[in-house]
Design a protein that fits this description.
Length: 192
């Protein structure tokens, strides 16, 4: 289709320029995105992931937390943009047919933040929420703050006791993740 042809042509043009400027082929990636669907979130998520210097450490810690919580899935979001930083998927959730579910959740969270900003008369970047919960017969979901710069979404089996224990354990795990924040604010000043 036309979109694929345009992407192929632009990719070839950029690759040629990169080679002329001394960039190796593996240093440049291309994503076909649109403002009309979640593909833009997926592309930005990839950019965010490459910018996180300790992504592997974070993933290992999330994997341990997922096992402790018996969570099907943990998704780490950057708080301001609602973009996925990384995720851990376990058990039956690995067969989830919705490959774009993270981008869909990003879009929903972003829309929710803009709605809250509109109704409170503040900027969307200043708006945050303490916790959001969704409970169905098949699963339970909550998203809450993990660090100053991140939110964590937890997908659990439909067991109320395990769900409540997971909420408490995420609160307790916060201090273990705080030192991994990319930028910590100390005394009103950002440090790295």
């Amino acid at each position: 289709d036309q979109r694929s042809r345009i992407l192929s042509q632009r990719t070839a043009d950029v690759r040629a320029t990169c080679i002329d400027e001394g960039f190796h082929d593996q240093q440049v990636e291309f994503w076909a995105t649109s403002i009309w669907d979640q593909s833009l979130y997926r592309a930005w998520t990839q950019v965010i992931y490459f910018l996180v210097p300790n992504a592997t450490v974070i993933e290992n810690m999330l994997r341990k937390l997922a096992e402790l919580l018996d969570a099907r899935e943990l998704i780490l979001y950057e708080r301001t943009t609602c973009l996925v930083v990384t995720h851990i998927t376990r058990g039956v959730e690995t067969r989830n047919p919705y490959a774009d579910r993270f981008e869909r959740i990003s879009s929903i969270l972003k829309t929710h933040k803009h709605s809250m900003a509109k109704h409170t008369g503040t900027n969307a970047s200043e708006v945050s929420f303490a916790e959001m919960q969704i409970k169905t017969g098949d699963f339970m979901f909550f998203i809450t703050r993990l660090t100053e710069n991140t939110n964590i979404a937890v997908v659990m089996p439909g067991d109320e006791a395990a769900f409540n224990a997971a909420r408490i354990n995420v609160q307790l795990a916060r201090r273990e993740f705080e030192h991994l924040d990319i930028a910590e604010k100390k005394g009103g000043k950002e440090t790295q």
